[in-house]
């Protein structure tokens, strides 16, 4: 599917997802359920217009980046679409990161304004002081400290706003993606991209419709969560549950029982955690679910089978990337091949190529390339990384795949050392660099190891300066050390003390030799 065949040259995607619902008579329909509040589509339009006007008053112009450090709450919806509607560029970032990460995002994006949910202010505050180009900070949903209150600001702003005359190919939003080395890369997405995701995966795989109510345990700041809980439901006037807290297996079951969603989106680690809840199928009413979705990392077939047995509903596994916007390869409801990633989503072309870019013979493992019109335009200010990733209309995802005789795609790992842990990127290099900051550590190597659910978690091989100090206490101390220094989800779940690490002649760690 090509956006230029279906969308006009002048196109503002906020009008498509926000204003269209009201124009087509769904103003009184519920859009978002948040804690005890329901926001109708008319409420959403007002929130978006007020936020857009408040940003204009702060001097935000077309193409200006607005950093969003927002929980799954109304301020996310208001700021994301409000910024897009005035032609500015929202940059939602991972809320589980640390001060140093936020300083990088602010510097790299040159955001002039940041909108932050109050509970995240403590971690972000030191970065806000240091960020050179940041002019204004709005704090939403609680104590705003020395900064300005988002709610006060938008209450004073006008509730009417005309969409900026953007083009379908203007930058609409960015999302950061981490790599094994170097800083995260800002994937620049255009106004037409979200429409393409809706018309392809949203409509043709999920079959999302106005009567659906979605709940995504994956948060809105992830590309996965943004589609699931924001633009897919808004694309058809459906409902979405916003939960600003951490999704634990118990709390997710409670939410499903309380809000009765028809579509549920999780990652394999969460499904494994939910399957570990004893008697969940009798304690919680999950009968509202018509379909469950898994992405972020491969779903082991065992989890697919146990879930269907206990809850009577299917989990369809599909693979998406931040760069492509959402899922482009997926199993189909009722026709899943458990353990595989399924078949190409209509609207996307897939190829498996060797390291020289030549098509690999059927059945052989190669590099996955995808052609589709939701793919990012480029990585912001990372020209070399862009050139290594985009090949004309094709993008190489960094994943190894083969196809079986029926055309189903089977995931075979990454071509870099990156790990997906609970659906979130972990760079072994970053964890190693953190471990060596501990005074007892000489060097470290981090690799992925499967846990009892066959899901990958980080494991560290550590060489100590004084090898005789190796002990369980020190291992625990090293885990806590990493948790304290970088985003806690990155810590090594296992530590093995080693005498030395396997290395190449040039001294590069050979992580593949350590994988179990
Ligand atoms: C891996 C999978 C096997 C794969 C995402 C749904 O995960 C998403 O985006 P990210 O940019 O990571 C992309 C990478 O994650 N991966 C994702 N899903 C699967 N591997 N099976 C899967 N089902 O390495 C891919 O390159 O964080 C997921 C929708 C939108 C997304 N951005």
Give the helices and strands, then pairings.
Elements: H1 3-6, H2 13-23, E1 30-34, E2 37-40, H3 41-57, E3 65-69, H4 74-85, E4 89-92, H5 99-109, E5 113-117, H6 121-130, E6 136-140, E7 148-149, H7 150-156, E8 171-177, E9 185-190, H8 193-206, E10 213-216, H9 223-236, E11 239-242, H10 249-259, E12 263-266, H11 268-275, H12 280-283, E13 291-294, H13 301-311, E14 315-320, E15 327-330, E16 343-344, E17 349-353, E18 366-371, E19 378-379, H14 383-387, E20 390-391, E21 394-403, E22 409-414, E23 419-421, E24 424-426, H15 428-435, E25 441-450, E26 456-464, H16 472-485, E27 494-497
Parallel strand pairs: 1-11, 3-4, 3-5, 5-6, 6-7, 10-11, 10-12, 12-13, 13-14, 26-27
Antiparallel strand pairs: 1-2, 8-9, 9-19, 14-15, 15-16, 17-18, 18-21, 20-21, 21-22, 23-24, 25-26
Helix pairs in contact: 2-3, 2-4, 2-9, 3-4, 3-7, 5-6, 8-9, 10-11
In short:
It is built from 16 helices and 27 strands. By secondary structure, it is of the alpha/beta class.
Estimated share of beta-strand residues: 25-35%
CATH topology of the largest domain: Rossmann fold
**Number of helical stretches of at least 4 residues:** 16
> Are there runs of 5+ residues with pLDDT below 50, and where?
none
Q: Which oligomeric form is depicted?
A: single chain
Distance between the termini: 42 Å
Average pLDDT score:
97
Give the class from helix and strand content and strand pairing. alpha/beta
Can you give a write-up of this model?
This protein is an alpha/beta fold. It has three domains: 181 residues, Rossmann fold, CATH 3.40.50.980; 221 residues, Rossmann fold (3-Layer(aba) Sandwich), CATH 3.40.50; 96 residues, GMP Synthetase, Chain A, domain 3 (2-Layer Sandwich), CATH 3.30.300.30. It is 31% helix and 25% strand. The protein is built from 16 helices and 27 strands. The strands form six sheets. It has a nine-stranded mixed beta sheet, with helices on both faces. The chain has a five-stranded parallel beta sheet with strand order 4-3-5-6-7, sandwiched between helices. Strands 17, 18, 20, 21 and 22 form a five-stranded antiparallel beta sheet that branches. A hairpin with a 5-residue loop joins strand 21 and strand 22. Helix 10 packs across helix 11. The protein is globular, with a radius of gyration of 23 Å. The two termini are 42 Å apart. The mean pLDDT is 97. The protein binds 5'-O-[(S)-[(2-aminobenzoyl)oxy](hydroxy)phosphoryl]adenosine (3UK). 5'-O-[(S)-[(2-aminobenzoyl)oxy](hydroxy)phosphoryl]adenosine binds next to helix 9, strand 14, strand 21 and strand 22.
